[in-house]
Design goal:
Helix 1 crosses helix 2 and helix 9 packs across helix 10. Strands 1-8-7-6-5-4-3-2 form an eight-stranded parallel β-sheet. The protein is α/β, with parallel strands linked by helices and 304 residues long. The two termini are 27 Å apart. The protein has twelve helices and eight strands. It has one domain: Alpha-Beta Barrel (TIM Barrel). The longest helix is centred in the C-terminal third of the chain and has 16 residues.
């Protein structure tokens, strides 16, 4: 399990009855890998995990594992209201063939550090799989400080990576200063990827990659190898779209971009609703502007 490269936080496709469209999900996973993605992260926030039943979650993991070649890791996100449910999801995902876990803090209840640490350690102990801690204080209200991350890493050999979504790239250098290369650091917000790589991140759990994978992989690779000219050109072009990953309606917006690009449907499960009116017009305008102003560095993704 290598925690590097561009790993899509893959969206969950729904059919007209809002059931999981497993055929489309499998096709999308294969397409993302064909365009250079290094793995697939399923059941995350962008995958609308909170609206999925337990059985649906595990079925999606099975679909992903069957869809991609054995060398491509499938990482299952673990999020739940209770520690017992989180442990159950982790164990079932491992049994379904996941090669790694992305562990979120408990939903709703924001405990103190003693309680949060106990939850994380219970999930880490639940399987032999390597795991990535997901730190997103903006969305979940729980902030794993660099010092707390060190404590978890010292207490568990299974903790292998951190998805850093605090939006503060200084966290990358702070974790590196305390842990060196002990953990892989993945950027978790699309509009901080170039800055995150400069600070020492080695991977990207990405959102807009669901619609534009080749462009995302090229941006990551330009930044990683220090090709400042191409990275800057591509980043400037991409940023209006990448910023959609950091707003409350990021799921609706990214799915809408998928639909505009012809690589998915904008359908979401309630309580989310598809964007309409001015929000829809603005999303379409941003996408169309990107299509008409594509710079030489922005290679197009292969056909779906």
């Amino acid at each position: 399990m290598q925690w590097t490269g561009v790993m899509p936080a893959i969206t969950t496709a729904f059919d007209e009855a809002l059931n999981v469209d497993h055929g489309f999900v499998a096709r999308q996973a294969r397409w993302l890998v064909a365009n250079g993605c290094s793995g697939i992260v399923c059941l995350g926030s962008l995958g609308e995990s909170a609206t999925l039943a337990f059985e649906e979650k595990i079925a999606i993991v099975r679909t992903m594992v069957a869809a991609v070649t054995p060398g491509v890791p499938v990482v299952a996100a673990v999020s739940a209201l209770s520690t017992a449910e989180a442990v159950r999801i982790a164990q079932a995902a491992a049994d379904a063939g996941a090669q790694g876990l992305m562990i979120l803090p408990p939903y709703v209840y924001q405990g103190d550090w003693r309680e949060t640490r106990a939850h994380m350690e219970a999930v880490l102990r639940a399987t032999p799989l390597p795991a990535m801690l997901y730190n997103n204080p903006v969305a979940y209200g729980t902030d794993f400080t660099p010092e707390q991350i060190v404590e978890l890493a010292e207490r568990s050999d299974h903790l292998a990576a951190v998805k850093e979504s605090s939006t503060d790239v200084r966290r990358v250098t702070a974790i590196r200063a305390l842990l060196g290369e002990r953990l892989s650091i993945m950027v978790g917000v699309d509009d901080a990827i170039v800055e995150g790589i400069a600070a020492g991140a080695v991977g990207w759990v990405a959102g807009l990659v669901n619609a534009l994978p080749r462009e995302s992989v090229d941006l990551f690779e330009f930044a990683s190898r220090g090709d400042q000219k191409n990275a800057s050109e591509l980043y400037r072009w991409f940023l209006p779209l990448l910023r959609m990953d950091t707003v409350p309606k990021f799921v609706q917006l990214i799915k809408q971009v998928q639909e505009e690009a012809g690589v998915g449907s904008a359908r979401v499960r309630p309580p989310r609703l598809q964007v309409v009116g001015e929000e829809l017009a603005q999303t379409r305008a941003i996408f169309q502007q990107a299509q008409t102003s594509r710079p030489p560095a922005a290679r197009s993704s292969s056909s779906f």
